[in-house]
Structure formats: structure tokens, C-alpha cells
Amino acid sequence: MTTPIKIRPLTGLPEIAEGAPLGRLLAESAAAAGPAPADGDAVVVSQKVVSKAEGRTRSLAAVEPRAEATELAERLGKDPRLVELVLSESQRIVRAERGVLIVETAGGWICANAGIDGSNVPGTDGVTLLPVDADASARRIRSELEAACGARPAVVIADSFGRPWRVGQVDVAIGCAGLVALDDWRGRTDALGGELAATAIAIADQLAAGADLARVKDSRMPAALATGISRWWTADDGAGARAIQRAAEDDLFR
Amino acid sequence: MTTPIKIRPLTGLPEIAEGAPLGRLLAESAAAAGPAPADGDAVVVSQKVVSKAEGRTRSLAAVEPRAEATELAERLGKDPRLVELVLSESQRIVRAERGVLIVETAGGWICANAGIDGSNVPGTDGVTLLPVDADASARRIRSELEAACGARPAVVIADSFGRPWRVGQVDVAIGCAGLVALDDWRGRTDALGGELAATAIAIADQLAAGADLARVKDSRMPAALATGISRWWTADDGAGARAIQRAAEDDLFR
Prior knowledge:
Two copies of one chain form a homodimer.
Chain A: E1 5-10, H1 22-33, E2 42-46, H2 47-53, E3 57-59, H3 67-76, H4 80-88, E4 90-97, E5 100-105, E6 110-112, E7 126-128, H5 134-149, E8 154-161, E9 170-177, E10 183-184, E11 200-201, H6 203-212, E12 223-227
Parallel strand pairs in A: 2-8
Antiparallel strand pairs in A: 1-12, 2-12, 3-7, 4-5, 5-6, 8-9, 10-11
Helix pairs in contact in A: 1-5, 3-4
């Protein structure tokens, strides 16, 4: 239980285009600079390259905003083409004020701009959308990793989200496979036999956050390999990061 | 820039009582199982033991709830003595419904029950309060570490907080010293020369989250040592975790 955790960035990946074999490229990157990913490890990969590999990129120049998007964009001081994309990727607006547009995405994540952004995307007006189903993306990347290196590391797809009450973004999991995304502690006791206050620990989010520290956002380091986390590794792909989505009826802030 | 991050739990600490020399105990624990903490490293320590060392423990049996606390407790189905403590540690109630009491603490953190809980506290009705000023706590522990091991690792004080929209808790920083708590990316460009979407990364929160993965909550492992994070280490104690508190006027969710 006292194995140290190690997290190293995966470097040297090419610019990722639609159809790129992301799992194989990640396996090659890992093996080029250290041990290949193994069972019990986890590969944490940024949403940005997953979206690029899946063709979830758009050019703002090709977007025709509807009146609703134009009006909202004007009120928020945003690009109407971006707002059009955000609305088309969303099922509900959570907040739209003071220049901030927070939505619930079609996939069920609550975040600013439906996770759409243009950093690290080629072209002056290119943006990425979130993967349609990032848990499915994680399962597919895991399969590709297995084909490339003969092992089944867990896969976490991470994106940087802002939070209420706290300044700054942290990486969270929007998809995963082969990891206990949520470690349920209900009913367990502490070292003194008392009741534990925590009900569940969002393991996948913590792993995404820790892995982000190993990367450099302005470089081509879209992924990291974590070892020493086998407590939460599973052979099965499991329920994915969807387990972390709080149901609307249990939520006090939407 | 590609140094791996390593995080190992600090084990073998005794039960912490008021006045315990926490910094020295952490230094001894680290040195007993590996290299002593060095400049450029960070020691992440749970709020619980910091509060115990500072005498921030209370017995619910000694709490006399006021009428306001009794009424609120009845409405929420909580122990009126706990609610009394929560209110006495708070400057504002953010949400009080469906059995959940979320407040802004006197120290400016927004969390459930003002961070008060009874897990891993001796006695059947013992609870810990958050440190009065966890940044000051971090500075003091850092000084004690320096006295014990001759180096100045950063210190992060972590607690497990729930989040809107997402199930499960993650560890966040409520205090730190010697760490860039918030890494400001405004004005920097991405690998392709484009604008970065992120404005600031909450480094201290990500480190708290990653370090929690190395600990086991039901064991006596109240701290972890992180290496490979010297990018964010500073010789000065710096502004602390307070930099992560979002001002009320910039917040859409309180």
C-alpha cells in the first residue's frame, strides 16, 4: 500500500490528425523513454488530442450562427460562431452572465463553453469539441494500447475545467476505462474505528489532476503515464467517468 | 521539463496531539523510508493532523447549540451541536437544503459543514475544525521541516471537498507555503502560437489531489512527499492558497 506513484509525461508525439492511431502513438511514446505501459498503470491523455484523432474539430469560419446564438454572444461579449457551437453541443444552459457561458453538454458534463476551445488547434479559427462519448473513446484507446504493447493500462481522458468558488482550472476526467473512477467509502471505518466523512473519492479526477502536473501545456505533451496506481486499475473497462456525473436531482448548483 | 513526478506516502506517524511537532515528525517519517525532503519537493499533509496539532479539536458533548443552530439542524436532519460549530466557524451560508449545509468559512473556503468532521478523531464525539489560517500553518510546518532536515520543501495542507456537478470528493489545498498555488497562463501561447484557453492552473489543488492517491484514508498516512515538482517550488513562502479563493463578486454560484 505504500508503492510510490510516478507520473511521467509522454513526449515526442506528432501533431494528431483525424484518424491518427492515438493508442499506438501513446504506446510508442511511452516505450521510447521508459518501460512500456503495463497492467496496473494508467495513461492519462488530454481531451484535445482525442478530439483531434476523432475529427471533433471545427473551423469557426464554417459556422453560421442562429439568431439565438447571436443574441447570447452579444450579451456575453463572445464570438457568435463559438456560441453557436456551444449551444449545438449542449442540452442546458447553467449560467450565462458576466461573459461566462456554463452549460451542461450533450454528454452530461457541466463546464464553460461546452469544453470547446481553440488552444493547440492548427489554424487561426480551429476549435475542438469534446468527444461525443469520452468513455467510449477511452475504451477504444485502451484497445489500441493493448494491440500495441500487449498490456491493458487504464486510460483516462482529461480536460481542464474551472470550478465555482475557486480560481483557476484543474484537470478532471471526462472519460476513462479500466479504472475505478469513483472509490466508494460508505460503510468503511477510519484508523480509529470511527465513521469516515467522505462518501466517495473521485479517483479519476484526482489522477487527471496529478497527471496534469507532469505535462507542460504549451508543449507537445498531451499525455502522461502513471504507475503505482494499481489499487484502482481493473481488467474490465468498467463504468467509466460517467459515474462521476452528479444527477440533476442531487445537485444544488444548476 | 520531463522529470517524472513521484509521490510517496509518509507512514509511521504517531497519533497527533495538540502541540505535536508536526514538521519534525514529517521530516523523520520521510527520512526513515527514503531521501529526506529537499528544496524543490513538497510535503502534502492532511488538514486533520494539522488541526489536531493546533488544538483545533472539539468534543460535541461540550457544545451548547443556540436556537438558530437547533432549528437549522432539525430542518437538515443534522446534529444540532455540529450545526452550532459549523455556524460559529462560518461567515455565510451558501446552501442549506436536502441535508446539505454548505458555508463560506471564516477563512474564506466554501465547503460542506465548514470542513468540520469526526473521522480519524479519537473519542466518539470528537471533531476537528479547519485551521484558523492554514497558510500560516503551512508556513510554520515549513519552518519546522527546515529546522529538522535543513531544506525548505514546499508545504501543502489538503482537505477533501465535494464539488457541484460532480460526485465524490477530491483533495484541494486550503493552505500552502513555498509553492506557486496558482500558475497564471494569461498571455502565454500554445505550441502552435495560438492563445491558450486556460487562464490559470490551480497547481496547489492538483498537487493535493495527486498526493491523496498515494495515501490510504483509513490508515495512519496523513501526508505524502512529492518530488519532481520543482517548477512550482519557491524559496519564499509566497501568497499561499488564499490566491485560489475566488472573490464573491467574481463568483456565479454563491
